[in-house]
Amino acid sequence: MHEDALRFGANYTPSRGWFHHWLDFDLDEVRADLDSLAALGLDHVRVFPLWPVFQPNRTLIRPRAVEQLVALADAAAERGLDVAVDGLQGHLSSFDFLPAWTRTWHRRSLFADRQVVSGQAEYLRTLAAALADRPNFLGMTVGNEINQFSDDPHPDPDRITPRQAARWLERMLAACEEGAPGRFHVHAEYDAAWYRDGHPFTVAQAARLGAATAVHSWVFNGTAQRHGPAGTATEQHAAYLIELSKAWALDPHRPVWLQEVGSPAPLIGAERAAAFTEATVAGALDCPDLWGVTWWCSHDVSRELADFPELEYGLGLLTNDRRTKPAGAALARIAARWRGRAHRPAVRSTALVVDVGGADAAPRRSVCAPGGAFFEAWAALTAQGVRPAVVLAELAADPAHLSSRGITEVLRVPEPT
């Protein structure tokens, strides 16, 4: 694979038992799932150990569970698939998975309690170390959107400050690095980090900590409701988050991983899933420094499982019985077109200025959210055929910064009339 080649993969949702498959691990079923993904021409999967299953007690990380994770990684390698592993699950598809030693009678902060943090770090280090000698192991993601546990609208958050969030992220990433030095270790938040004023996990943390910036693009956040299934803002939402992140990055060529993106019904109807996939990925591919695209998700959730939000059942590239869906066929076509090719899109030389009240805390980051002045201005420019990058207000007149990113024109958000 060319060193600049794009990566195309899927977030692996097992077709039998969903993530509860860890309780009844069946390697033959896993192999069949991975066969169906390899047949799409994908090159990696992101996998999700369930934290309470793997670490049911603070000082017990189950060896058998870790062996099963390694067996999954080895099965992926046999099919030409690399593996990225999320650690702290955390939260998946509307369900929380937290070990009993952090809740109710043992309630302690997930982010600030010394013993909990130490247990988390040892868990992440252990998983990373178990996979460190596997050539197809990409690296760890600290957890899946674990920032939701720190703030509203979670019904029972462990509230912290931005300083505490940064300290926790640095500790978790260091644990991953200790277990598997030099791998692609990242962290990933849902979009409150980008859009919610006062949220303790910040854009600066997302864009500066870890080996890459991971973005999760979900248009059910108000984008598709406001702009419709085929609106520019909807089809370009992933590209928008990629470009927004680059405004905060200290390295002008920091890689950005579109780690989650999907076509949620009914906002994106089944009849539009393939077109949405094509348009979304095309938008992302028009962003310099994109590492890759990892679609959510691999296989539909079985209707035998209860109480999921309706949209979660049909997000797969493949059905629950491993038949390719239109979105899966679309992603396979894109992956085939790009296989082995270098990804070098044109520089985005025009930048739109974002003022969030200061880069570190971003107290006014809601201007970046759907309906916010900056979000809507960026979408309007894109609809006109402009390819806008994003630059922070405090750097908009810095010649060295602009030059490092190839920006030659700076635009301002129009004042409201």
Walk me through the structure.
One of its GO terms (molecular function) is hydrolase activity. This is Glycosyl hydrolase. Keywords: Hydrolase. This protein is α/β, with parallel strands linked by helices. It has 2 domains: 332 residues, Glycosidases (TIM Barrel); 62 residues, no CATH class. It contains 14 helices and 13 strands. It has an 8-stranded parallel β-sheet. Helix 1 runs parallel beside helix 3, helix 4 runs parallel beside helix 5 and helix 10 packs parallel to helix 11. It is globular and about 60 Å long. The model has no long low-confidence stretch (mean pLDDT 96).
Helix content: 25-40%
Q: What is Rg?
A: 20 Å
Order of strands in the sheet with most strands:
7-6-3-2-1-10-9-8
* Superfamily (CATH H level) name of the largest domain: Glycosidases
Total count of helical runs of at least 4 residues: 14
Structural topology:
Elements: E1 7-11, H1 27-38, E2 44-47, H2 51-54, H3 63-78, E3 82-88, E4 91-92, E5 95-96, H4 114-131, E6 137-144, H5 162-179, E7 186-188, H6 192-195, H7 203-208, E8 213-217, H8 223-227, H9 232-235, H10 237-248, E9 256-261, H11 273-285, E10 290-295, H12 326-338, E11 350-354, H13 373-383, E12 389-392, H14 399-405, E13 409-411
Parallel strand pairs: 1-2, 1-10, 2-3, 3-6, 6-7, 8-9, 9-10, 11-12, 11-13
Antiparallel strand pairs: 4-5
Helix pairs in contact: 1-3, 3-4, 4-5, 10-11, 11-12
GO molecular function, one term: hydrolase activity
Protein name: Glycosyl hydrolase
Keywords: Hydrolase
